[in-house]
Every structure is written in C-alpha cells, then in structure tokens.
Amino acid sequence: MFKKNGSNSSRGSLAPTIIWWVVVAFLALSVIYPSIRLILNSLKVGDGYGLDNYVTVFSDPGILRSMKNSFIVVIPATIFSTIIGVFLSWVVVRTNVPGVKYWKRLLSIPYFIPPFIGAIAWTFLLGPVGYFNKFLMNTFGFEQAPMNIYSLGGMIFIMSMYRYAVSFIVVLPTMKRISASVEEAARISGASPWRTLRDITLPLITPSIMGAMLLTFMFILADFGVSSVLGAPNQIHLMTTQIYYMINNSTIANNLQVASAYSLFLSLFGLVGLWVYNRVLATNKFVVVSGKSAAVEPTKLNKGPRWILFAILVIFFLFTTCAPILATLITSLTKTYGLPFGPENMTFQNFTQMLQIQNVARAFKNSLFLSVTSSLVITIVTMIIAYISIRGGVRGVKGVKFMQMTVVLPYAVPGVIIALSMILAFSQPIAGVRLYNTIWILLIAYIARFMNLGYNNISGAISQVDTSLEEAARISGASQLRAFKDVMLPLLKSSLISSFFLVVAPTISELSLSSLLWSVGNETIGTIVFSAKEEGRILLTAAIAIILIILVVFINLLVNSQTDKD
Q: Are strands 44-45 and 48-49 parallel, antiparallel or unpaired?
C-alpha cells in the first residue's frame, strides 16, 4: 500500500515538472528562436557578419525621415493624450458631474476600438470628400477640403483621440484611492477646487501620470494601423510603416537585413520604456490612499461649473466617439459614396454582399479561429507560468524569471517586428514542417505577441489567493497537481474567463502581425479591411468596420461586466 502511494506521489510531483518544460519548449519555439534569428539577421552581411546594416539605418535618408516623422507625431500625441486622459479621470472621479457611473464606461470606448478602424472612421469625416469637410466647403465656399487628415497633423489628432483612453484607464484607479481627507483638508483651508487639483491631487498622482504617459508613448510609437491608413496616400512613413515598406520592397539591397537592424533599434524604445514604466510603478507607493477610511468624496462644484463640465463631456464624447462611428455607419448604408445620404441613397446591400464575398467570409472564420485558439493557449500557458513563478515548489524547474521576461517583452515590441522575426524564423521548414504561408504562423505570432495580457491578469489573481488553502490540501495528502486542480483552479475560474476574453478582443481585429504574415486563404478581418481601404472599396470597408466595432466593443463590455462581478 505504501509503495503504491509513493508511486502516485512520485507521478504527482513529476507531472508539474513535465508541464513546465513543455511550456518552456513552446516559448523557445514561439519567442526565443525568432528573436535570435532577428538579431543574427540584423548582423548578416554577405557571407559574414558585421554592423553594415546599422550604418545603413543611420545614413539612409528615407529611414532617417521616418525617425523624424515618428517623433513629430509621437511626442505631441503622447502629451495631448495624457492631458486629456488625466483631466477626464479627474472630472469623473473627483467631481460631482452628473452621470458619473455612465461616463466611466462611455469615455473608455475608444480604448476598445482598434486604432486603425478609428482612423478609417475619421476619414469618412475629414477625408477629401468626408462629411465634415463637405459641410465646411458648402457652408464657407472652400474650393478644396480645408482639413487634411492624410498628414502628420492628422496622425497626431487621431492618435490623441484614441490613446487618451490609456491615461484615463490607468489614472482612474489612482484617483479613486486618494484619501478624501487630504483634499478635504485643503478645502477647509480655503483652497478652491482648481487649487486643490493643482497643489494636492496632481502631485499625489504624478507617478501614475508618468506611468500612463510612458504606456501611451509606447503604444503610439508601436502603432502601425493609424500611420499606415493616414500615411499611405502621401507616402508618409513612420518607423513601423517604414519597416513594413522595407520588408515588402525586394528592390532595396539587403532589405530584410536592414529591416532587422531598424527593428532592433525601434525595439529598444519599447524595452527601455517598459523598464522605466516598471521603475515608475515602484515609486507609486507614496500616493496617499484611503484604506478603510472615508470613501472618495467628490468636490462639490457649484451648479454652473458642474453643468459646464457635463457639457464638455457630452461634446467631447459626441465629437470623438459618436461622430466617427456614425459617419462609418452612414457610409456603410450608402449606395453611392460622395452623394448626399438619404432614403434614395440608402441600402443594406453592403452588408449582405460583404458575406457573399468569399475572402471576406473566410477572413471572419480565420480571425475567429485565431482569436479563440490563441486566447485559449495564452490562458493556459500564462496560468502555468504565473502559478509556478508565484507559488514555486516544483522540482526541476529552472529559468522562471527568464520565462517571465519571455512572456512580457514581446508586448513591448511593435507587431511588425514580431512579424518580421516570424518570417525569418519560419520561412524555411523546421523538421520537415512548413509554417510559412499557413495559418499556423499567424497563430504562433498572435500567441507570442499577446501573452502579456493574460499573464498580468492571471498572476494578479493567483497572488490574491491565500497559500494556506493549498497547504491544507497538501497536508490532507493531495499532490501539488491535485491541490492546484481542486483548490486553485475553481478560485481562478472567473479570472481565467476574463483573461480569455481580454485576449480575444485585440486578436480578433489584429492588423500589424497579420499584414505581413497573411497569405491567400489565410486572410484575417484586419487585413481585409486594410486591403479594401487601399483598393478604394469604401463601402465594403465601412460595412466591415461597423461589424468589427460592434464585435470588439461587445467583447470588452463582456469582460468589464465579468470584472465588475468579481
């Protein structure tokens, strides 16, 4: 009897180790091997290795111009986004503006919408024949469209309108945690609401603001969709679109090698930004939080300022969120683009024809498969890594910290760089298995890129579970695997579900990876929309964009409702 129990115990202790090394092997294939190939390719010169490709990066006029354009766009867009996001979070949390519980959700909507879809939506308003430009031309007699969205200024505007939500979402929880007594003391001393904001609130949330600014900077710098949609007509390249152009332009000497070198240079910004962001988070400890003291008490504004702020929120929401979506919806219901919209120029055929086009229907199926499968794999893999890294106690486990880095770092790198590394890694068959030009290379890229989303959510949930629960199971004779299955897994159920949908939302509309890795028969929704826009198929683009907006917003609302229950 005792031998039998010993055998079961041995198998029980061996199973977690085997599972761990299977995960390590998977990460080695999906992240480590492509990264090594990218680094080596950046140093490849003829039959040897050298730094010639890096010299080209810092001497080629087109590449240098794309660097300049990137910072012209990224710096002001980051500043504007942060200012807007912080102001809105203050209004929603620290004032008595009407409809607070609704504004928290409404002002977060731009975060859910893929930025490239947002850029397309705004072209229906501010494009050469956009509704708002036509209104201005008809009203004021302009001969040409007064606003040019296909410019660096247009990119700054669109990125600010969609990335402010990052600062809004990041700063909002910190705003909530500030002790009401701190601001109350300032008001008792005679400080006005604006003086309290300047002298008390803003200094307390400075680390959170800096973190939000860094995240916004990283998101905008890594953006491919907005810059490709708005930059293509006038050949304006940022760093990400310049890399995309170089990869697809075989007439450039050593195009993949130079693109690899440029990719590593761009990656440095994301990796350094992530490091600084983590350092900033570590300084967030001095924020005065309320703990079990008084709940957040909003500043009691007088009737005039209160309704002025409410009007600002309404106008901002209608202008930045509703107007582009409404313009897209109107375009999707239009028979002939460019003519006035009305009953005679209205149709639902754009939607019915959309599903009759073979590659569009196939793209929806492919995106659904890639999104669900990658989300499932990410949830399982990150759960294993998070559990072992936090709980430990598994024999034969090595390289835990390195595996954590392997999960986190790809999300700090632009998608086009991940795609390039996949091309270099899998362009040739591995062990007789060909991944290039198949849907499987897309799946591997999706998993590598979005693992961090699942990891952050699940690791936070595991950290909140008391270790004594599992220890009690172990004392009762359960193996580590059995204790995890019977104790931890049920407690993590809601977090695992929310993590799954948290990954589904961005993957179902993904563009930057798919734009380089798709092939005939393996199209995705993102590439179909992108291609339709490039081909001038405006009505089809609008119809797919509306479906995608509804789908993505619904998924994110589902995640939020699940989180609220928790």
A: antiparallel
Exposed/middle/buried for 111, CB within 10 Å: 0-12, 13-18, 19+? middle
Q: What is the pTM of this model?
A: 0.87
Q: What percentage of the chain has pLDDT greater than the value 70?
A: 90
Q: What is the pLDDT of residues 169-191, one digit of tens each?
A: 888 887 777 766 666 676 677 67
Instruction: Say if residues 354 and 543 touch (Cβ distance below 8 Å).
Output: yes
| CA quadruple 516, 520, 524, 529: dihedral, nearest 10 | 80
Domain presence at residue 494: yes
Question: For residue 143, is it within any domain?
Answer: yes
- Asked whether 109 and 554 are in contact (CB, 8 A), the reply is no
250 vs 188, which has greater pLDDT?
250
DSSP 3-state assignment of 21? Answer: helix
Last residue of a domain, one of 234, 249, 283: 283
Report the 10 Å Cβ neighbour count for 284: 15
Residues contacting 289, CB < 8 A, separation 6+: 177, 178, 179
Q: Which of 245, 267, 283 is the last residue of a domain?
A: 283
With both helix axes pointing from N to C terminus, report the angle between 415-426 and 239-248 in degrees, rounded to the nearest 10. 30
Task: Give the range of the structural domain holding residue 250, as residue numbers without chain letter.
Answer: 59-283
DSSP 392: -
Domain count, the chain: 2
Which residues contact residue 123 at a Cβ distance below 8 angstroms, ignoring those fewer than 6 apart? 130, 149, 150, 229, 230
- Residue 159 and residue 244 in one domain: yes
- Do both 21 and 89 map to the same domain? no
Coil vs helix vs strand at 128: coil
Tokens of 6: 């010993």
CB 426 within 8 A of CB 435: yes
Query: Token match 């930025």: residue?
Result: 115
Determine what percent of the chain falls in helix, strand and coil, rounding each to the nearest 5. 75, 0, 20
Within-domain flag for 310: no
- CA 54/CA 42 separation, integer angstroms: 8
Dig out the tokens for 18 from the structure: 């085997």
Q: How many CB atoms lie within 10 A of CB 182?
A: 15
CA angle 274, 456, 78 (to 5 degrees): 40
Tell which phi-psi region holds residue 46, choosing left (phi > 0), alpha (psi between -120 and 50) or beta.
left
Confirm if 93 and 294 have CB atoms less than 8 A apart. no
311 alpha-carbon distance from chain centroid = 30
Tokens standing for residue 163: 């990335």
